[in-house]
TrEMBL record, chain A:
<keyword id="KW-0813">Transport</keyword>
<dbReference type="InterPro" id="IPR051393">
    <property type="entry name" value="ABC_transporter_permease"/>
</dbReference>
<keyword id="KW-1003">Cell membrane</keyword>
<feature type="domain" description="ABC transmembrane type-1">
    <location>
        <begin position="74"/>
        <end position="288"/>
    </location>
</feature>
<feature type="transmembrane region" description="Helical">
    <location>
        <begin position="21"/>
        <end position="44"/>
    </location>
</feature>
<dbReference type="GO" id="GO:0055085">
    <property type="term" value="P:transmembrane transport"/>
</dbReference>
<keyword id="KW-0472">Membrane</keyword>
<feature type="transmembrane region" description="Helical">
    <location>
        <begin position="269"/>
        <end position="289"/>
    </location>
</feature>
<feature type="transmembrane region" description="Helical">
    <location>
        <begin position="161"/>
        <end position="184"/>
    </location>
</feature>
Automatic annotation (TrEMBL), chain B:
<dbReference type="Pfam" id="PF13416">
    <property type="entry name" value="SBP_bac_8"/>
</dbReference>
<dbReference type="InterPro" id="IPR050490">
    <property type="entry name" value="Bact_solute-bd_prot1"/>
</dbReference>
<feature type="signal peptide">
    <location>
        <begin position="1"/>
        <end position="25"/>
    </location>
</feature>
<keyword id="KW-0732">Signal</keyword>
<dbReference type="InterPro" id="IPR006059">
    <property type="entry name" value="SBP"/>
</dbReference>
<dbReference type="GO" id="GO:0042597">
    <property type="term" value="C:periplasmic space"/>
</dbReference>
<protein>
    <submittedName>
        <fullName>Extracellular solute-binding protein</fullName>
    </submittedName>
</protein>
<comment type="similarity">
    <text>Belongs to the bacterial solute-binding protein 1 family.</text>
</comment>
Amino acid sequence: MKQLTPRRRSFLNDLSGYAFISPWLLGFIAFSIIPILFSLYYSFTEYDILGEPIFNGLENFRRMLGDELFWQSLKVTFFYAFVSVPLRLVFAFFVAMLFNRGTRAIRIYQAIYYVPSLVGGSIAIAVMWRRLFMADGALNAALTKIGIVTDISWIGNPSTAIWTLILLAVWQFGSSMLIFLAGLRQIPKELYEAASIDGANPLKKFTHITVPQITPVIFFNLVMQLINGFTVFTQAFVVSGGSGDPLNSTLVYALYLYQRAFKYYDMGYGSALAWVLVLIIGVMTGIVFKTSNSWVFYEAKEGK
Amino acid sequence: MKAKNVLITILVTLLLLPGVLFAQAAAEKTDSNTMRLAWWGNPTRDERTYKAVQMFEAKNPGVTIETETTGWSGYWDKMNTQAAAGSLPDLMQHDYAYMLQWVERNQLADLTPYVNQGIIDLSKINDSFLTGGRVDGKLYGISLGTNAVCLTYDPAVLKKAGISQIDSTTWTWEDFERIAIQVYQKTGVQTIPFFTTDPKVGFDNMIRQTGASTYGKTGLGFTDPAVLREFYAIQLRLLDAGALIKPETAFVTVSPEEGAMAKGDTWVEFIWSNQFVSTQAAAQRPLEIAMLPNIKNAKAKGTFLKPSMFFSIPATAENPELAAKFLNYFVNDIEVNEMLMGERGVPIPDDVREHMATMVDPINKQIFDYISLVSKNAGPIDAPDPAGSGEFLKMVRDVTQEILMKRVSLNEGVAKIMSRGNEILK
């Protein structure tokens, strides 16, 4: 058999590696990289999809400063992210703590509790949420039963509508919960045993063992959910029928971006909005990463 | 090593294969007996359109029509993308709202040559039905059906409130307000805010009655906000009297089955005539159709006949002649229209419409009768919506809610529509 030079052998090795991932690679280039580059270009143009893009420099970004709805959508999105993410994480953590026991039925519960995360963006949920929170919906019926008579349309009132979306977000805690659960299972039993011998009560164990040990998982979940929170679209879209109703109180950033790009055919401005969102998420994630040194516990570091 | 080489060859071949296959498919397209047809629809419309395609194919052996259909919003995403890529179908369903923008971007073909060659026969069609598809004297779309704005009401509730028939051609907004109050006092049934999905349709009708129009060549087409103000003032008066359904409830987007009319919460609903079938089906009780009320001292007719949708041939169509032939068949053939049953709106050729009127079901008969009533009491249609109209409509709907939820005063709200409107439509 002919002997290949090491260099040729490694080239062939690389090539076969690329050949194996080529379906993904091609997809990534065609459906991610190229569109991303195009949208970057469009963000400096006026482009109505039907005509040719016309370069207009920084005009799109300048326009945002005076765009009332841009600021409104930022306000809504920040409020949504800063309220729903902590709530969802706390809730997910709480449920994960409950599930972190050995009984057999837990697996079934896990599956059941994960279901909302799967069906979250579906039209069925939009219909259900309307039925729950409209003026003659289930919530008001329940409130009336316990003596609180109200005909507030929770979903149609500008000051309460965003809360129905936040509730929907909290309800979809499944994936964070599973990650927390995996994290909780990783905590060495010996730590708890040692603490018990030292006479620590459950609360002490929780604050001195569970929480510090789980901080890397909290960190991971926080970053992922923050990104999710800032890019929220589907829930707002289906619940408000794509309008951001009532009175733009559920007009989240990605929804506004969608309206601009695909409803008003303002693709240039829409692309610019998208890049500003990338920037915002980058900054927010950066801040979380920067602060992580002071609160995330890494075992390796501790050993130094 | 050898096995690996073989594997790589197989993988590379697999990767290239789709390219080769697509290239072949593209090569086949140049065939003059094949065309692509696209429309937005619903299950009923899709089924009937497929059948029309089959009937056309059966009459023209060798012809193949490829079909694409989606819902309304997905349709325009798709068509815009195809327009950008230069791969539009040979015949596409089009809408009055977008026609002007498409014509301005040179995306649509002038149909006049096909009319002159006799491929498209317009001899049975009254010219008033065609004006909607004309821009600067050129014909860019043939209407597939006629539509008009209307209100539908519950005659049983009116009867209970002691109100006899409405004379739909002569009644005024004053009459409307009086009836709304009387209905509320006698039966407790409220009135829904006017045109919650698109309030502009409502005040547009009133502005047209003053002889002006909502859209001008640049900016708004009217300077006196008096009727615009009245449009909201009526609703605010009804709201203060308790007779108007709360805006917090009314402006939530719902299906017809969840709507106030279906639940019996309102005696009236404002719709387009082709929505009457679904409104009626959701309500499950007899409803009537009437024209919108007149304003005081009306100078012109507010209601107009609107093409519900068009067929247009894109400028990049590969097989425009076949598309024109199918279009002609679809519009003029009595047999195919018997099957289509006016689902896209009341047919425009006189002979087809007259034939259809004899065989539609009672609910569609109401629509046909309404369209005949309007055709005798209609003003000319305004020019297609200008660029920026989408944003304008959104702004109007937002401000409408602000006014009715009393977040701004009536005067502030109206002033906002005037100033923002001129800004957006400049």
